[in-house]
Please model this.
Amino acid sequence: MPLSPDAIRIDPAAETERLCQLIAQQVRGDLKRGGGVVGVSGGVDSAVVLCLAARALGPQKVLGVMMPDRHSSPESEALARELGAQLGVEMIKEDVTPALEGLGCYRHQTEAIRRVFPAFDPDRDRFKIHLPPGVLDEDRLNYFLLTVEFADGRVETARLGPKELLQIVAATNLKQRSRTATLYYWAEALNRAVIGTCNRNEWVVGFIVKHGDIAVDLKPIEHLYKTQIYALADYLGVPKGITARPPSSDTYSAAQTQEEFFFSLPFPLLDLMLYAWEHGVPAAEAAPAVGLTPEQVTRAYRDLTTKNRTTDHMRHMPLTIRGQLP
Model:
């Protein structure tokens, strides 16, 4: 069958029913827990998971946890609270800024940034790291850029060296790991399960944090592409303020989209491209379906392969030594 958008089209009502049954079975039967805890960010993924959990377990058996830090957008909390009120789910706020300060997150970020931009002031200036545009138009290796928005209006961008990139990413990953620890506090205190919000794009391409956002008890939307999640969001009545908001990492102090930060392609194109790549569709066959040239599809496939390969270790359980004892 020729590649087309129908390949990733779902029946939202049927999928909702199936997922709710599975969530109820896994939480109450497999895990033997009395309910669920969901980290709610104000984005569409966590919104859909909160809706599914409330339907599957009952809103009184679900806790939504908002976990902002000093770099989070205030809009995220407002949107999360709106959704919680709509569903009748209890929402609590746990500011992880003090934990991150204690772990050195902001200090390590600032140290690395100042090796590139010595005048950077974390209290006044904003920053982000991101991939360069043009993944479809030229053959190149991926590298990250650092952009700083100075308080005086200047915006400067420089290519990050390996040492600075690794330090910024390692420091930033403390955010996801602190949030996971927070979710497990509430899950254990209430005898509930942590319900994850990772989708298929994030899982396959590696937009995840090991022992961070994927360290959960169940992952009900890991099989769904982003456009499929939007279809569920529309069916479930997720507020338009969430579904109309461009997907954002909401991780660095400067605003950025997930496309800009990591994925490099808009989600409607990325989803079909990822499906084609996973199913071994030749570039020449995929090209007309996605509106690109075979050369552009080949570059996209190469980018997906690289990201999948370099993040492969994140998707595996810890290695063990097997064999007989002496």
About this structure: The chain has 13 helices and seven strands. The CA atoms of residues 198 and 214 lie 7 Å apart. Residues 162-190 form the longest helix (29 residues). The longest strand covers residues 62-66.
